[in-house]
């Protein structure tokens, strides 16, 4: 997969793609479906994605709390796994956001990226003030010479699959509902960072990861599947993770700390992918360290049972 970060001066080899357009936060079942449609709409064309960085909401409201399900790196990895060959990750700035719908179609899609075919969801809006609709894009395509397919929206029961409903499921401690809409477990990816070196004294050393920039799942304890992605301990493990601020030890910056079962070794700096399977309980402030350790023992037993039944 090639990542192209500008819509001007695009190489000939990177033009002519059949591409889906959107934010693709989480790369959920709806996203996977538009990608499949883009693939079958023009099987001989390179399969592309047009997306934006930062996410438009981050650009318009930089002070708002983090809401992303996936970092741009994770998004790129997932798209590559789905067979995407060209990722047009366009800088979302005042210039791009100020283009009228017609200018976006002409300058970005037709002239800039030279797309052969475009796939969008039925609720897609584009251009300054989100003034352009999917139907408008179809009309521009006919005029400017690119094909447009409007994809139906994927349902999950009665509700539409969306990044927002996945965020809500995670905020409410329903990771299995999030997974049903994602088509995969919700994962937190990143390197293991240093902590307060307290976990080892408790008898539960934890691999800590930052939640910076990401939508925080409900604070509390989760049964997790852990992939160690590199290094001598590369492999898959079961574990128990604590998401939150660790009230037993003051109010700290929220992170995720994972105890891997049947594991010992150094994970500092190693890339991990932690999948949230079930929410067990909220994080608590216990009366004593002994009470916390007794509870963590119970949490681990419960997590082992949940994970071995998967
Ligand atoms: C399964 C599990 C459950 C935990 N539950 C709580 C909790 O309820 N309250 C809390 O303050 N910390 C909880 N912790 C977090 C510990 O406080 C944390 O792992 C410890 O402070 C180690 O910090 P360190 O990794 O920075 O050394 C839990 C940790 C694990 C692994
Ligand atoms: N079973 C395990 N689960 C998670 N991390 C482990 C485990 N065994 C050893 N480690 C290592 O111990 C470190 C965590 O120890 P801990 O005392 O909690 O320190 P920190 O405060 O840095 O998290 C991890 O980053 C990892 O390198």
Automatic annotation (TrEMBL):
GO molecular function, one term: riboflavin kinase activity
One GO term (biological process): riboflavin biosynthetic process
Enzyme Commission no: 2.7.1.26, 2.7.7.2
Name used for this protein in its record: Riboflavin biosynthesis protein
Pathway: Cofactor biosynthesis; FMN biosynthesis; FMN from riboflavin (ATP route): step 1/1; Cofactor biosynthesis; FAD biosynthesis; FAD from FMN: step 1/1
NCBIfam families recorded: PRK05627.1-3, ribF
InterPro entries: FAD_synthase, Riboflavin_kinase, Riboflavin_kinase_bac, Riboflavin_kinase_bac/euk, Riboflavin_kinase_dom_sf, Rossmann-like_a/b/a_fold
Entry-linked Gene3D superfamilies: HUPs, Riboflavin kinase-like
First and last residue of the signal peptide: none
Cited Pfam families: FAD_syn, Flavokinase
Function summary: Catalyzes the phosphorylation of riboflavin to FMN followed by the adenylation of FMN to FAD.
Keyword Flavoprotein set for record: yes
Entry keyword set: ATP-binding, FAD, Flavoprotein, FMN, Kinase, Multifunctional enzyme, Nucleotide-binding, Nucleotidyltransferase, Transferase
UniProt family annotation: Belongs to the ribF family.
